[in-house]
TrEMBL record:
Subcellular location: Cell membrane
Membrane topology, as annotated: Multi-pass membrane protein
Protein name, entry field: SLC13 family permease
Protein family per UniProt: Belongs to the ArsB family.
InterPro entries attached to this UniProt entry: Arsenical_pump_ArsB, Cit_transptr-like_dom
């Protein structure tokens, strides 16, 4: 995910290729890792603490790296075909295209990962807009708002979910059962805001483009089978890093048989893995410098409704100020182990509220790179204003539903 890739072209000609130069996000990744390693070297983070952090995030890194490879290879055949079919299924109607794009982005986030949506679905959606001759910004905003807003349902949907599920001890089914109604409430709020702010001004009709044919039907079927197997493994409750690794290897083998040129080391999102590792080490260091005390004071120790609301608001504010991953990790460290609802409130804020600033989530940073590469101009003032309204609406709806259904 942190790998910089060129956007998909109008024909969906294959997996994206990495740029050789370093981007600002790459430099941020190295800076965070350097800061974390410096904290370990100076003793601010004891070696035992660093090893414990490494042991906790290793399965997450394996999952994240392999699911990106899976989705990157699937995009070249499967995602491009699905996205262009959406414009045909909508029959030239703006409202139908909105509903289909909304569902596609939400499903991709929930079933794969929010960063997968930002990295892979953004160029696909922008290319789809170009084919249909519709404004690209509504599709771009649908992608990023659903990357964040639809990331509550399953442990795979967001890195923070993996941490929360492990902390609470919930199975995939248990986690989904706890979050399904808050997730639906969030989707209603996000959908209403998307329509009001970005979609209702579009022309009511557009000319549907011709459907895109897959370059190789064998690879299309292999990608569909690998993604279906991944979803089945997740729902079955298998270890996520094992499921994603096996499915990615199966699809890599298919490409090695039928399109070896598409394979390369650039498929591995090493920059993202560096960034996530650096974030965890840096957050642990900052927590020892006083962040933990601040979070404890803001979140409080009330396991009831007040504590849930305080946790949700605190993590949402910190996510927009810093980033959602450190916001969740810092908050988790001060929430008592038995306060399940308070931890879920913390998760809600970290997942659905980071819609205001460009750095509020890794997904937003990656999405902004893809938009810039495709020539789509983002007016950050409008982004922040509409994101603030949507974030408040989504967080309020999700938190209220969580409290009403606990």
């Amino acid at each position: 995910m942190a790998q910089a890739t060129v956007p998909a072209d109008a024909a969906g000609t294959g997996p994206t290729r990495a740029r050789t130069r370093f981007s600002g996000l790459d430099l941020l990744a190295f800076a965070l890792l350097g800061t974390g390693l410096l904290a370990v070297a100076t003793g601010l983070v004891p070696p035992a603490g660093a090893l414990a952090t490494g042991g906790r995030i290793l399965p997450i890194l394996i999952f994240l790296g392999t699911v990106i490879v899976l989705a990157e290879l699937a995009r070249a055949e499967l995602f491009d075909v699905i996205a262009t079919r959406l414009t045909g299924w909508a029959r030239g109607r703006n409202v139908a295209l909105f509903a289909l794009c909304f569902a596609f982005a939400a499903a991709t986030t929930a079933l794969l990962n929010l960063d997968t949506t930002a990295v892979l679905l953004t160029p696909v959606m922008l290319a789809t807009a170009a084919r249909a001759g519709v404004p690209p910004l509504p599709l771009a905003m649908t992608t990023i708002w659903l990357a964040n807003g639809a990331s509550l349902l399953l442990p795979v949907s967001n890195l923070t979910n993996l941490l929360a599920a492990d902390r609470i001890g919930l199975s995939v089914g248990g986690f989904a059962g706890a979050m399904v109604l808050p997730q639906l409430a969030v989707l209603v709020a996000v959908g209403a805001c998307l329509w009001i702010f970005y979609w209702r001004g579009n022309p009511a009709r557009y000319l549907p483009p011709a459907p895109v044919r897959p370059r190789d039907r064998r690879l299309l079927l292999a990608a569909a089978a690998a993604c279906t197997a991944f979803l089945a493994g997740v729902l079955w409750g298998e270890r996520l890093e094992l499921v994603s690794a096996v499915c990615a290897l199966v699809l890599v083998a298919a490409y090695a048989r039928w399109d070896r040129a598409a394979l390369g080391w650039n498929l591995l999102p090493w920059r993202l893995l560096v960034l996530v590792t650096g974030l965890f080490l840096t957050v642990e260091a900052v927590g020892r410098l006083g962040l933990a005390d601040l979070m404890a004071a803001m979140i409080g120790a009330d396991p009831g409704a007040v504590g849930v609301v305080r946790a949700a608001v605190t993590s949402g504010l910190l996510a927009n100020a810093v980033n959602n991953l450190p916001a969740y990790v810092a908050g988790e460290a001060v929430v008592a182990a038995g306060h399940r609802d308070q931890l879920l409130g913390l998760l809600l804020g970290a997942n659905v509220a980071p819609l205001v600033t460009a750095w509020a989530s890794l997904a937003t940073l990656l999405w902004a790179q893809r938009c810039q590469a495709a020539g789509v101009r983002i007016r950050w003032g409008r982004f922040a204003l509409t994101g603030a309204v949507t974030g408040v609406a989504a967080l309020g709806a999700g938190t209220a539903t969580l409290l009403l259904t606990r």
